[in-house]
Amino acid sequence: MSEVQYKVKLPNFTGRNVPIHEIAKAIGKDAQYVRVGLQSGILTFGYAMKIGNSSEYSYYCPDKKVWEETGYFKST
Q: Among residues 68, 60, 73, which one has the least CA distance to residue 11?
């Protein structure tokens, strides 16, 4: 019996930090929804890091992780 092989062409991931507004548009939500989801850990395609003692956050959403969780990819 022959073995079935599947070939999948993956996008060319670069580690690009996908902007929050771009992700929000791709998943049909607003940017604040994505920010709060990342801050609370509910959305897992990126990281929200609090900046010092302020109330501000910095976000990192690598293109591969965004693609794995949402199916969205845009090459640069």
A: 73
